[in-house]
Specification:
Helix content of chain B: over 70%
Strand content of chain B: under 5%
Number of helices of chain A: 7
Distance between the termini of chain B: 51 Å
Strand order of the largest sheet of chain B: 1-2
Oligomer: heterodimer
Order of helices and strands of chain B: HHHEHHHHHHHE
CATH topology of chain A: Rossmann fold
CATH superfamily of chain A: P-loop containing nucleotide triphosphate hydrolases
Shape of chain A: globular
Largest sheet of chain A: 5 strands, antiparallel
Number of helices of chain B: 10
Order of helices and strands of chain A: EEEEHEEHEHHHEHEHE
Structural class of chain B: mainly alpha
Largest sheet of chain B: 2 strands, antiparallel
Number of domains of chain B: 2
Radius of gyration of chain B: 22 Å
Strand content of chain A: 15-25%
CATH class of chain A: Alpha Beta
Helix content of chain A: 25-40%
Number of strands of chain B: 2
Distance between the termini of chain A: 22 Å
Radius of gyration of chain A: 18 Å
Number of domains of chain A: 1
Number of strands of chain A: 10
Structural class of chain A: alpha/beta
Chain lengths: ~250, ~270
């Protein structure tokens, strides 16, 4: 089951360290498969200044919500990008359900292991059109439009049905984050890679979003990796390992 | 209508005096375009003078290798210049541009020569060199505009493109808008010139033929053929260079390379 394995090394440039703490979590009645949904081994990323992190290991099993913390510039977003294959690691590999993720499979993989950017990309048009954006892509073409589910999700996050018709151009940063998360959830992903998903939200909306993600997590064979600067939030959402980047290893 | 009036070297001074008047005006008003006009004007005269010498030699020798060599040289210069005129570029673009512009222009010239004009010999420089020159000149502009638009679009739209990729888009689905936009922009001069040809503008080649004594109806048919060939060359070359840039910028695992990975130079 899930645990980060950090190898202690000395590097030039940005220091890298991991704290690894094992938390046992039993997600209700669900059967947890033996193979982790997402696993990474010996992952390393190098920038011009040197290794930003190296020797990272990850096993993310069903029902887990790992939390990822660290100061700005320690490579949290870089790790999420590398895990979903937007960036290629300089060392190591990423496995999806035991299979090495390579080449042509990446679009399908990214539709299952969805990276939710801190500032989600919105296209000109309404919120509904933005929620439908993934349906334009071949890999999601078999999915039908799910306006009912979209409205239900948005309602859980405190948005009325009228929100669907709102222009994306007038959304606040927090509302954009809600749209980004709802869009990812409508893809019925196996893993959510959340990059500070409540950074622009007020306390009440933050709580609702946390609730939505945790309920989604409880409903099946799925896992999440949640990046946050907020220690209280980390304590609330954590259901599995906690990873801190950039601390002395 | 078989003769034309010769323009002598001294008589060119009259034409130059008009440009010199503009230079003086620019200097007096400090418009800052004098130096550039002077450099461009001088380059043009020297280049055309040298071209005249080379063409006379090529025309007199009229042998295949000389024509081929001249055509290749023109193609390489056009390909390199096309990339140099973009505001963003990466090293591999030069090779892509030269390969595409040479192969496209040679192919279209080949079709015109073999299928339409059929001169004897087939490499008759009187036909092949001007034809190739017009195709290369127009393709150069198309490639410059298209590549510039594509690279700027991808760089400025990086967040959006990666947002699409993160939702399961293939590299083509993520880049299609930028490719389409590059082709639209690359073809603007060609499409615009076709739209107003004969109404606003009298095409240079047709004007030249008429000045040289050809019947207007003959000149018009030549011009129509040339415009079709130019449009085909510009579309194919712009598409070719854009697609090669696309293949270099996006990896086969549907990832957008960073500017550093590509060695992109900004101007």
């Amino acid at each position: 089951m899930g645990c980060w394995l950090g190898r202690s090394r000395s590097f030039r440039g940005v220091g890298c360290g991991l704290s690894c703490e094992r938390v046992y979590y039993s997600p209700g009645e669900h059967v947890i498969s033996e193979t982790p949904i997402l696993a990474a081994e010996d992952l390393g990323r190098r920038l011009d200044s040197g290794w930003i992190w190296r020797g990272l290991g990850l096993q993310l099993a069903a029902g887990e919500c790992a939390v990822l913390t660290g100061k700005s510039g320690t490579g949290k977003s870089l790790l999420l990008r590398t895990l979903c294959g937007l960036d290629r690691p300089d060392e190591g590999h990423v496995h999806h359900r035991g299979h090495l993720v390579t080449g042509q499979e990446l679009p399908r993989f990214r539709a299952r292991v969805v990276y939710v950017q801190q500032k989600p990309v919105l296209i000109p048009g309404t919120v509904l059109e933005n929620l439908d954006l993934p349906l334009r892509f071949h890999v999601n073409a078999a999915r039908g439009r799910r306006e009912g589910r979209a409205a239900a999700l948005l309602s859980q996050m405190g948005k009325s049905a009228g929100f669907l018709d709102q222009r994306a151009s007038v959304l606040s940063g927090g509302e954009a984050q809600i749209v980004g998360l709802a869009r990812a959830l409508l893809l019925e992903p196996e893993v959510l890679l959340l990059d500070e998903p409540t950074a622009h939200l007020d306390a009440e909306s933050t709580e609702r979003v946390e609730q939505v993600v945790l309920e989604w997590l409880d409903a099946g064979d799925r896992a999440a990796l949640w990046t946050s600067h907020d220690r209280a939030q980390v304590a609330r959402v954590r259901r599995g390992p906690a990873i801190e980047l950039g601390s002395a290893g | 209508m078989n003769t034309y009036i010769d323009v002598t070297w001294p008589s060119l001074l009259i034409a130059a005096s008009l440009l010199i008047a503009n230079l003086v005006l620019s200097a007096v008003l400090r418009l800052g375009m004098g130096r550039r006009l002077l450099v461009a004007g001088t380059r043009m005269v020297v280049q055309l003078f040298l071209l005249g010498l080379v063409l006379e030699w090529v025309f007199e020798s009229a042998n295949g290798p000389a024509v081929l060599g001249m055509g290749l040289l023109m193609g390489v210069v056009a390909g390199v210049t096309a990339v140099r005129r973009t505001s963003i570029r990466f090293p591999a673009a030069y090779l892509d541009s030269v390969v595409v512009i040479v192969s496209t222009a040679f192919l279209v010239t080949g079709v015109s020569v073999l299928g339409i004009i059929r001169p004897t010999p087939l490499w008759d420089p009187q036909y092949v060199i001007p034809l190739l020159g017009m195709l290369l000149g127009n393709a150069l502009t198309g490639i410059s505009l298209g590549l510039d638009r594509f690279l700027n679009g991808v760089l400025a739209g990086r967040t959006r493109i990666e947002g699409f990729l993160a939702l399961g888009a293939t590299r083509w689905e993520a880049a299609r808008d930028e490719v389409r936009e590059a082709l639209r922009v690359g073809l603007i001069p060609t499409v615009n010139s076709m739209l107003v040809m004969g109404i606003v503008s009298l095409p240079g080649m047709m004007t030249g033929q008429i000045l040289a004594g050809a019947a207007p109806a003959d000149a018009v048919r030549y011009q129509i053929m040339i415009v079709f060939m130019i449009a085909a060359t510009v579309s194919t070359a712009t598409f070719g260079v854009t697609m090669l840039a696309y293949a270099r910028i996006f990896t086969s695992d549907h990832r957008l390379r960073s500017a550093g990975e590509l060695g992109i130079e900004l101007e």
